[in-house]
Design goal:
Length: about 100
């Protein structure tokens, strides 16, 4: 849930999504769901000569399982908030794992 919440906070920002087939797409993050499927608007391909068939595409839906990396704008990432959220989630996971089974 942490990544889902994090990506939802980036809606409206420009991101670069690199797919497992080496296609990199730059666009505005329109939406993301709990499976980390991504919808981008106003897209451009970072290597148009390698993927000329993508030049006419303006919006796309990307299945979460085909994403290799998502490059985020560094000024949009609050690393302190993200670290705190990770610690909190780890503590909650540790507390439920340590609880005795009934």
């Amino acid at each position: 849930m942490l990544f889902f919440s994090f990506f939802k906070s980036l809606v409206g920002k420009t991101v670069v999504v690199e797919l497992k087939n080496d296609l990199s797409i730059c666009g505005t993050l329109h939406s993301v769901d709990q499976f980390l499927n991504i919808k981008l608007t106003d897209i451009t391909v970072t290597e148009p000569d390698k993927h000329p068939h993508m030049l006419s595409v303006k919006n796309c839906f990307i299945r979460g399982s085909v994403v290799r990396y998502v490059q985020l704008p560094s000024d949009e990432v609050d690393t302190q908030l993200l670290q705190d959220a990770c610690r909190k989630e780890a503590q909650q996971s540790g507390a439920t794992a340590a609880a005795p089974a009934k």
